[in-house]
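Re: export button greyed out
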Amino acid sequence: MARKPTLSPSKFTTFLACPTKYYWTYLDPRGKWYLRSKNYYSFGTTLHLVLQRFHDSNDTGVTTVEEAVAAVEDSWIDAGYSSAQEMQEALGEGKSIIEAYVERVQAQPVAATTIFFEKLLRKDQGDWVLTGRVDRVDEHPDGTIEVVDYKSRRQGVTSEEIASDLAMSVYQVLLKEQFPDRPVRATILALRTGVSATASLDDSQREEFENDLRALAREILDRDFTGHEPTPKALCASCDFLALCSKEPKFQADYEAWLDSNKREILEEDS
Ligand code: SF4
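Workaround output, generated via the alternate export path:
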Protein backbone atom coordinates (compact mmCIF):
# COMPACT_ATOMS: atom_id res chain seq x y z
CA MET A 1 0.00 0.00 0.00
CA ALA A 2 1.32 3.45 -0.94
CA ARG A 3 2.41 5.60 1.97
CA LYS A 4 0.22 8.58 2.73
CA PRO A 5 1.76 11.98 1.98
CA THR A 6 2.86 13.94 5.02
CA LEU A 7 2.55 17.69 5.56
CA SER A 8 4.56 19.48 8.24
CA PRO A 9 4.77 23.14 9.33
CA SER A 10 7.85 23.54 7.09
CA LYS A 11 5.98 22.24 4.07
CA PHE A 12 2.97 24.49 4.73
CA THR A 13 5.07 27.61 5.25
CA THR A 14 7.24 26.88 2.21
CA PHE A 15 4.15 26.50 0.03
CA LEU A 16 2.63 29.72 1.39
CA ALA A 17 5.89 31.59 0.74
CA CYS A 18 6.20 30.30 -2.82
CA PRO A 19 4.55 27.23 -4.45
CA THR A 20 7.53 26.92 -6.83
CA LYS A 21 9.89 26.75 -3.86
CA TYR A 22 7.72 23.95 -2.46
CA TYR A 23 7.98 22.14 -5.79
CA TRP A 24 11.80 22.38 -5.91
CA THR A 25 12.19 21.50 -2.24
CA TYR A 26 9.85 18.55 -1.94
CA LEU A 27 8.78 17.27 -5.35
CA ASP A 28 11.48 17.67 -8.00
CA PRO A 29 14.78 15.90 -7.21
CA ARG A 30 16.72 18.50 -9.26
CA GLY A 31 16.06 20.99 -6.46
CA LYS A 32 18.45 19.31 -4.01
CA TRP A 33 21.49 20.18 -6.17
CA TYR A 34 20.77 23.87 -5.57
CA LEU A 35 20.39 23.76 -1.79
CA ARG A 36 23.19 25.58 0.04
CA SER A 37 24.28 24.94 3.62
CA LYS A 38 23.15 27.74 5.93
CA ASN A 39 25.25 28.72 8.92
CA TYR A 40 22.12 29.55 10.95
CA TYR A 41 20.81 25.98 10.43
CA SER A 42 24.15 24.56 11.58
CA PHE A 43 24.19 26.91 14.59
CA GLY A 44 20.60 26.12 15.59
CA THR A 45 21.08 22.37 15.17
CA THR A 46 24.17 22.40 17.40
CA LEU A 47 22.32 24.24 20.17
CA HIS A 48 19.36 21.86 19.89
CA LEU A 49 21.67 18.84 20.20
CA VAL A 50 23.26 20.24 23.37
CA LEU A 51 19.91 21.15 24.93
CA GLN A 52 18.56 17.70 24.09
CA ARG A 53 21.44 16.13 26.01
CA PHE A 54 21.04 18.59 28.91
CA HIS A 55 17.32 17.82 29.34
CA ASP A 56 17.66 14.07 28.79
CA SER A 57 17.71 12.55 32.28
CA ASN A 58 19.27 9.38 30.83
CA ASP A 59 22.25 11.37 29.55
CA THR A 60 24.46 12.03 32.54
CA GLY A 61 27.25 13.58 30.45
CA VAL A 62 25.72 17.08 30.20
CA THR A 63 24.46 18.20 33.61
CA THR A 64 26.68 21.17 34.50
CA VAL A 65 27.51 24.50 32.85
CA GLU A 66 31.04 23.27 32.06
CA GLU A 67 29.78 20.02 30.49
CA ALA A 68 27.16 21.85 28.45
CA VAL A 69 29.72 24.36 27.14
CA ALA A 70 32.09 21.49 26.24
CA ALA A 71 29.19 19.76 24.47
CA VAL A 72 28.79 22.79 22.16
CA GLU A 73 32.29 22.10 20.83
CA ASP A 74 31.66 18.32 20.62
CA SER A 75 28.38 18.80 18.71
CA TRP A 76 29.59 21.67 16.52
CA ILE A 77 28.43 21.59 12.88
CA ASP A 78 30.69 23.69 10.67
CA ALA A 79 28.64 23.73 7.44
CA GLY A 80 27.67 27.05 5.89
CA TYR A 81 30.23 29.42 7.44
CA SER A 82 32.05 31.68 5.01
CA SER A 83 35.34 31.81 6.96
CA ALA A 84 37.13 30.29 9.95
CA GLN A 85 36.78 33.60 11.79
CA GLU A 86 33.01 33.72 11.26
CA MET A 87 32.77 30.17 12.58
CA GLN A 88 34.92 30.89 15.65
CA GLU A 89 32.74 33.89 16.51
CA ALA A 90 29.62 31.75 16.17
CA LEU A 91 31.18 29.02 18.34
CA GLY A 92 31.92 31.56 21.07
CA GLU A 93 28.40 32.92 20.83
CA GLY A 94 26.95 29.39 21.00
CA LYS A 95 28.92 28.66 24.17
CA SER A 96 27.73 31.92 25.79
CA ILE A 97 24.10 31.17 24.92
CA ILE A 98 24.31 27.65 26.38
CA GLU A 99 26.14 28.85 29.48
CA ALA A 100 23.45 31.47 30.18
CA TYR A 101 20.67 28.96 29.45
CA VAL A 102 21.98 26.31 31.85
CA GLU A 103 22.56 28.91 34.57
CA ARG A 104 18.98 30.17 34.18
CA VAL A 105 17.51 26.65 34.34
CA GLN A 106 19.60 25.72 37.39
CA ALA A 107 18.51 28.90 39.21
CA GLN A 108 14.83 27.98 38.83
CA PRO A 109 12.97 25.39 40.91
CA VAL A 110 12.23 22.29 38.80
CA ALA A 111 8.45 21.86 38.56
CA ALA A 112 7.81 20.35 35.13
CA THR A 113 8.98 17.03 33.72
CA THR A 114 10.30 16.88 30.17
CA ILE A 115 8.44 14.05 28.42
CA PHE A 116 9.54 14.50 24.79
CA PHE A 117 12.59 15.97 23.15
CA GLU A 118 13.06 16.33 19.37
CA LYS A 119 10.08 14.06 18.82
CA LEU A 120 8.13 13.61 15.61
CA LEU A 121 4.37 13.71 16.27
CA ARG A 122 1.73 12.60 13.76
CA LYS A 123 -2.01 12.91 13.29
CA ASP A 124 -3.81 10.96 10.59
CA GLN A 125 -6.02 13.16 8.38
CA GLY A 126 -7.54 10.50 6.11
CA ASP A 127 -5.52 10.50 2.90
CA TRP A 128 -2.61 12.47 4.39
CA VAL A 129 -0.80 12.77 7.71
CA LEU A 130 -0.08 15.94 9.68
CA THR A 131 3.40 15.81 11.22
CA GLY A 132 5.54 18.09 13.35
CA ARG A 133 8.84 17.70 15.17
CA VAL A 134 8.71 19.33 18.60
CA ASP A 135 11.85 20.61 20.32
CA ARG A 136 10.69 19.85 23.85
CA VAL A 137 7.44 18.96 25.61
CA ASP A 138 6.98 19.43 29.36
CA GLU A 139 4.32 18.02 31.65
CA HIS A 140 3.43 20.36 34.53
CA PRO A 141 2.22 19.26 37.98
CA ASP A 142 -1.33 20.51 37.19
CA GLY A 143 -1.40 18.24 34.10
CA THR A 144 -0.78 20.98 31.52
CA ILE A 145 1.21 19.88 28.50
CA GLU A 146 3.54 22.57 27.14
CA VAL A 147 5.50 22.51 23.91
CA VAL A 148 8.67 24.62 24.07
CA ASP A 149 10.20 25.77 20.79
CA TYR A 150 13.79 27.07 20.83
CA LYS A 151 14.68 29.98 18.58
CA SER A 152 18.42 30.50 18.27
CA ARG A 153 18.29 33.72 16.20
CA ARG A 154 15.52 35.64 17.92
CA GLN A 155 15.99 38.23 20.64
CA GLY A 156 12.37 38.43 21.76
CA VAL A 157 8.88 37.06 21.27
CA THR A 158 5.30 37.98 22.15
CA SER A 159 2.23 35.86 22.86
CA GLU A 160 0.55 37.47 19.81
CA GLU A 161 3.34 36.13 17.60
CA ILE A 162 2.83 32.64 19.00
CA ALA A 163 -0.94 32.84 18.54
CA SER A 164 -0.44 33.57 14.83
CA ASP A 165 2.46 31.13 14.29
CA LEU A 166 1.47 28.20 12.07
CA ALA A 167 4.02 25.77 13.52
CA MET A 168 3.05 26.48 17.14
CA SER A 169 -0.62 25.91 16.31
CA VAL A 170 0.23 22.64 14.52
CA TYR A 171 2.15 21.46 17.60
CA GLN A 172 -0.88 22.18 19.78
CA VAL A 173 -3.15 20.20 17.41
CA LEU A 174 -0.71 17.26 17.51
CA LEU A 175 -0.34 17.32 21.28
CA LYS A 176 -4.09 17.61 21.85
CA GLU A 177 -4.42 14.42 19.79
CA GLN A 178 -2.10 12.64 22.23
CA PHE A 179 -3.44 14.31 25.39
CA PRO A 180 -7.13 15.04 24.66
CA ASP A 181 -8.08 15.68 28.30
CA ARG A 182 -5.18 17.97 29.16
CA PRO A 183 -4.74 21.73 28.72
CA VAL A 184 -2.11 22.31 26.02
CA ARG A 185 -0.05 25.45 25.51
CA ALA A 186 2.84 26.58 23.34
CA THR A 187 5.93 28.57 24.30
CA ILE A 188 8.71 30.07 22.22
CA LEU A 189 12.01 30.63 24.00
CA ALA A 190 14.47 33.09 22.43
CA LEU A 191 17.76 31.42 23.39
CA ARG A 192 19.96 34.52 23.00
CA THR A 193 18.06 36.49 25.63
CA GLY A 194 16.05 33.96 27.62
CA VAL A 195 12.86 35.88 26.72
CA SER A 196 9.84 33.63 26.30
CA ALA A 197 6.13 33.97 25.63
CA THR A 198 3.21 31.54 25.72
CA ALA A 199 -0.16 31.19 24.02
CA SER A 200 -2.87 28.58 23.89
CA LEU A 201 -5.62 27.79 21.38
CA ASP A 202 -9.02 27.14 22.93
CA ASP A 203 -11.16 24.32 21.50
CA SER A 204 -12.98 26.46 18.92
CA GLN A 205 -9.77 28.22 17.80
CA ARG A 206 -8.02 24.88 17.39
CA GLU A 207 -10.95 23.47 15.40
CA GLU A 208 -11.02 26.54 13.13
CA PHE A 209 -7.26 26.35 12.62
CA GLU A 210 -7.41 22.65 11.77
CA ASN A 211 -10.19 23.27 9.23
CA ASP A 212 -8.10 26.00 7.57
CA LEU A 213 -5.11 23.67 7.57
CA ARG A 214 -7.10 20.89 5.89
CA ALA A 215 -8.22 23.32 3.17
CA LEU A 216 -4.61 24.38 2.61
CA ALA A 217 -3.51 20.73 2.54
CA ARG A 218 -6.08 20.02 -0.19
CA GLU A 219 -4.74 22.94 -2.22
CA ILE A 220 -1.20 21.56 -1.94
CA LEU A 221 -2.00 17.88 -2.49
CA ASP A 222 -4.44 18.43 -5.38
CA ARG A 223 -2.29 21.00 -7.17
CA ASP A 224 -0.92 20.10 -10.58
CA PHE A 225 2.64 21.39 -10.46
CA THR A 226 3.41 20.46 -14.07
CA GLY A 227 3.84 23.61 -16.10
CA HIS A 228 3.99 25.75 -12.94
CA GLU A 229 5.42 29.20 -13.52
CA PRO A 230 7.67 30.85 -10.93
CA THR A 231 6.65 34.41 -10.06
CA PRO A 232 9.14 37.08 -8.96
CA LYS A 233 8.89 38.22 -5.36
CA ALA A 234 11.11 39.66 -2.62
CA LEU A 235 11.98 36.15 -1.42
CA CYS A 236 13.74 35.33 -4.72
CA ALA A 237 16.83 37.39 -3.84
CA SER A 238 17.76 35.03 -0.99
CA CYS A 239 16.30 31.84 -2.46
CA ASP A 240 18.56 28.86 -3.25
CA PHE A 241 16.51 28.16 -6.36
CA LEU A 242 16.97 31.54 -8.08
CA ALA A 243 19.44 30.04 -10.58
CA LEU A 244 17.02 27.20 -11.30
CA CYS A 245 14.01 29.49 -11.81
CA SER A 246 16.14 31.84 -13.91
CA LYS A 247 16.58 29.09 -16.50
CA GLU A 248 13.04 29.94 -17.57
CA PRO A 249 13.37 32.89 -20.00
CA LYS A 250 9.97 34.29 -18.97
CA PHE A 251 10.90 34.28 -15.26
CA GLN A 252 14.28 35.85 -16.03
CA ALA A 253 12.59 38.72 -17.91
CA ASP A 254 9.84 39.10 -15.29
CA TYR A 255 12.39 39.07 -12.44
CA GLU A 256 14.51 41.77 -14.08
CA ALA A 257 11.40 43.90 -14.59
CA TRP A 258 10.36 43.22 -10.99
CA LEU A 259 13.82 44.27 -9.72
CA ASP A 260 13.61 47.49 -11.74
CA SER A 261 10.19 48.42 -10.41
CA ASN A 262 11.12 47.53 -6.81
CA LYS A 263 14.61 49.05 -6.88
CA ARG A 264 13.75 51.89 -4.57
CA GLU A 265 12.24 49.62 -1.89
CA ILE A 266 15.19 47.20 -2.12
CA LEU A 267 17.72 50.02 -1.75
CA GLU A 268 15.79 51.41 1.23
CA GLU A 269 15.78 47.98 2.89
CA ASP A 270 19.52 47.57 2.38
CA SER A 271 20.41 51.04 3.69
S1 SF4 B 1 13.56 31.97 -6.94
FE1 SF4 B 1 11.61 32.97 -6.41
S2 SF4 B 1 10.05 32.00 -7.68
FE2 SF4 B 1 11.87 30.66 -7.69
S3 SF4 B 1 11.48 29.22 -6.06
FE3 SF4 B 1 12.67 30.87 -5.18
S4 SF4 B 1 11.16 32.28 -4.32
FE4 SF4 B 1 10.08 30.93 -5.71
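The pocket of iron/sulfur cluster is lined by residues 18, 20-21, 24, 230-231, 233, 235-236, 239, 241-242, 245 (CB under 6 Å). The button fix ships in the next patch.
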